[in-house]
Design goal:
heterodimer, A: mainly alpha, 61% helix, B: mainly alpha, 5 helices
Chain lengths: 186, 83
């Protein structure tokens, strides 16, 4: 590895940060190979940009900020792929804005909660979260699973609070549809 | 007055989700209450949404720690030497 003028020992980067970065990426992209590639690319970008690193933050924070940008770039590429239109849940003709019968809430969620320790159920949920479009997935993880604040999430993904509400609404609709199919057999 | 309070399920479910992450206005509160009083499906959506939120929160506790293997790390270091 290149010798830094800044007294940063880059040879220890992989040992010190790779696992934490890998876990972070894996939770957000749900693909071990892709997560590994993102970590690798982050180290490469980090080495290249080392001269511009102003040491205002720790190396770890700085590397994570590069990794987050890479994850968001990846989300952007994926964006349109898996989004379902609201018209697949709510009628556009007849009783406009009302639930379409097939999409209306049906499954028994109370039973569902009792099963929460069930390994297969946890896998089903993780799988449904994984099927969300890239950016939504990251936002759902940060907001609903890790319970980060609205401001923090909006900052991180560069969205406004009203973008966030729209995304949460659509992500939840898609998530519950997936769970009803997968687990509640409706 | 009452017709102004009328709201679609599309809007109601949106406000339910908005309320989970932010404050909602008094007007939104009132019209949602009105809608939920007459719409069973959205009432169910509301309670399901709460359960789903609790389930998602619980997911975090079960998250396992993953590690890259030593050989994967060596491969990474090698690529960094070349790059």
């Amino acid at each position: 590895m290149s010798v830094s003028t800044k007294n940063i020992d880059t040879s220890k980067w992989v040992d010190d940060y790779a696992d934490a970065m890998y876990n972070f990426a894996l939770a957000r992209v749900d693909d071990p190979d892709l997560a590994k590639d993102l970590v690798q690319e982050t180290f490469i970008s980090g080495l290249k940009a080392l001269e511009n690193f102003e040491e205002k933050s720790s190396v770890k924070t700085w590397l994570f900020s590069i990794l987050k940008r890479k994850i968001i770039d990846y989300y952007r590429q994926q964006e349109a792929r898996k989004t379902k239109p609201l018209s697949s849940y709510f009628a556009e003709k007849g009783r406009v804005g009302h639930w379409i019968p097939e999409a209306a809430p049906k499954g028994n969620y109370a039973d569902f909660e009792e099963d929460i320790e069930n390994r297969e159920l946890q896998e089903a949920i993780t799988d449904c979260v994984g099927q969300l479009p890239g950016k939504w997935k990251g936002i759902v993880i940060d907001k609903l699973i890790e319970e980060k604040g609205t401001d923090e999430v909006c900052n991180e993904y560069d969205i406004t609070p009203s973008n966030l509400w729209v995304i949460m609404h659509r992500a939840k609709l898609q998530l519950r549809e997936c769970l009803e199919k997968k687990w509640l057999n409706t | 007055m009452v017709e102004h309070l009328e709201m679609s399920c599309k809007k109601a479910s949106y406000i339910i989700e908005k309320r989970n992450v932010s404050k909602i206005s008094l007007w939104e509160k009132l019209s949602l209450k009105f809608h939920l009083a007459i719409c069973k499906l959205c009432k169910k959506y509301e309670s399901d949404s709460k359960i789903l939120a609790r389930i998602l929160k619980g997911l975090h506790k079960h998250e396992t720690q993953n590690h890259l293997s030593d050989s994967e790390k060596s491969a990474m270091k090698e690529k960094l030497n070349i790059g």
